[in-house]
Amino acid sequence: MRRVLILGGTREARTLAARLDTAPDVEVISSLAGRVREPVLPAGQVRIGGFGGVDGLTDWLRGNDIDAVVDATHPFAARITANAAAATRTVGIPLLVLRRPEWVPGPGDRWHVVPDLAAAAEAAASLGERVFLTIGRQGVDAFADRPGRFLIRAIDPPDGRLPADAEVLLARGPFTVADEITLMGERGIDVVVTKNSGGALTSAKLEAARHLGIPVVVVARTPIPDGVASTSDVDEVVAWVARHRGGRE
Ligand code: NAP
Prior knowledge:
Helix content: 25-40%
Shape: elongated
Largest sheet: 6 strands, parallel
CATH superfamily of the largest domain: NAD(P)-binding Rossmann-like Domain
CATH architecture of the largest domain: 3-Layer(aba) Sandwich
Number of helices: 7
Strand order of the largest sheet: 3-2-1-4-5-12
Distance between the termini: 16 Å
Order of helices and strands: EHEEHEHEEHEEEHEHEEH
CATH topology of the largest domain: Rossmann fold
Strand content: 15-25%
Radius of gyration: 19 Å
Structural class: alpha/beta
Bound molecules: NADP nicotinamide-adenine-dinucleotide phosphate
CATH class of the largest domain: Alpha Beta
């Protein structure tokens, strides 16, 4: 029996948990950070909450006899990915990152790629006055002191300070292109801000922005730590888990 920890919080993580839950000789435990109020729970065992940094995760992996870890967290959850790389190295167990492909600009897109949210706030201020902020719940305070009218969409209410003129729209994707075009048109949006999260669930806003000729400020991803293997293919992860029958290297 192999015991596999999935660091989750994404649709891909749930897909993987469902696949591994029915695989023979695999016991799968999914871990969620516990940020979303009503998370969609994956199949199989679930634990919720932080581990307490690299040391906490290292102890947890040892204490729970984990044979392999799949980091299927969101592409912008960089700290847990770095912690997983360090902890699995210390314990001597394999780690694979499951990460959905990035969005790439197509013809007609007016993308402004920036390295972080501070740069995104700067860029958005120079591009428009009515900002559609779709960066999730975290990091909105980078825009708090910026002028302009903000439409902020997230699953749960945003953390921290908000811009003075902000409308919060609580919604969970998927969204259709038609709905996004209507929303942006109704609110008179003239710039969209997003992280390069990738995936089909929330990509309609990009297509809508292209259709409307609106610029999009795109925050680039933090690279996966050096030496850590990654894939965007759930089948590959399932095969990888099967290969690590013996677990510890
Ligand atoms: P982060 O900055 O990389 O992690 C911050 C801390 O949260 C970590 O040090 C860890 O605490 C805890 N943590 C994160 N993911 C965890 C997991 N799967 N299980 C247990 N603890 C976890 O992460 P984040 O950006 O706050 O994201 C938190 C979670 O939300 C992730 O699981 C991610 O998949 C999901 N999510 C994030 C985004 C986003 O835009 N960042 C979007 C959608 C979903 P300890 O150090 O105490 O272990």
